[in-house]
Design brief:
The chain is 76% helix and 0% strand. By secondary structure, the protein is mainly α.
Length: 186
């Protein structure tokens, strides 16, 4: 079960971000395998946690839960590929040396996984916690700690942070907002 290694690394990133990125660098997982056996099953699990809301939100129909599950999966799936596109375009400006596409894939897979983990918590906790709304800031901090992992130069740190915020953190929330406008809430 490769997804357990993925979850282990996610937990390591949350508890000790710098050490987590060092461990990920030491693991050297194949990016395709990380995507197909790590991130995608985790995104499917994240989408399935929408059903947990059925225990404490009773006025929503089954069709609405299915729509929410699909939206939950799509927003992170699309974010992964959107971020990959923009990272391969703009990350070479921020790094010292040559761009490692493999590390870029890995970084984005773990970044999207961190945001999906926030959604899992939001789906499973029956009360609104203001802490959940601050967690994306911690996710940005965790991703920022990957400076050495990706080989970001000192002058490229600001551009790298903007790249993280605009390509990994904002798209899921923007897509969720757009889907909420399109799909009527029942």
């Amino acid at each position: 079960m490769f997804v357990l290694y993925y979850l282990r690394d996610l937990c390591q990133l949350i508890l000790a971000p710098l050490k987590g990125w060092e461990d990920i660098a030491a693991d050297c997982f194949d990016p395709r395998r990380l995507l197909t056996h790590g991130l995608l099953p985790f995104l499917a699990f994240t989408a399935l946690t929408v059903w947990v809301r059925a225990f404490y939100v009773v006025e929503v129909s089954v069709a609405a839960f299915i729509e929410q599950m699909i939206v939950c999966f799509i927003k992170y799936f699309a974010t992964y590929f959107c971020a990959l596109f923009f990272f391969t375009l703009y990350l070479p400006v921020c790094i010292e040396g040559e761009l490692s596409i493999s590390r870029c894939h890995t970084f984005i897979a773990y970044g999207v996984g961190l945001l999906a983990l926030i959604d899992v918590l939001q789906n499973c906790i029956p009360v609104e916690l203001s802490l959940v709304y601050v967690m994306p800031v911690y996710a940005v901090y965790i991703m920022w700690r990957a400076l050495r992992y990706l080989g970001i130069s000192f002058g490229g740190v600001g551009k790298f942070l903007m790249l993280i915020i605009f390509t990994i953190v904002m798209p899921p929330y923007l897509l969720q907002y757009l889907f909420n406008l399109i799909i009527p809430q029942t």
